[in-house]
Amino acid sequence: MTPDHDIDALGLLCPLPVLRLRKVLLAARPGAVIRILADDPVARIDIPHFCAEQGAELLQTEDMDQGTAFTIRAA
Known about the structure:
The chain is of the alpha+beta class. About 30% of the residues lie in helices and about 30% in strands.
């Protein structure tokens, strides 16, 4: 699945990955696919929780060499 938006949150610590995701979600059209790459270990907890609160659908969580990739569909 090709994302409509890519967010590079490598090197950013909590809460910055979620804040970057929030900014993109607010501007995204409904149904847009967003991929965020984060290496903060807390992102594995924060991003799924944030998606649930915002009504966004967490499509996939994938471990990568440099961090974790989250694929999200905007509500």
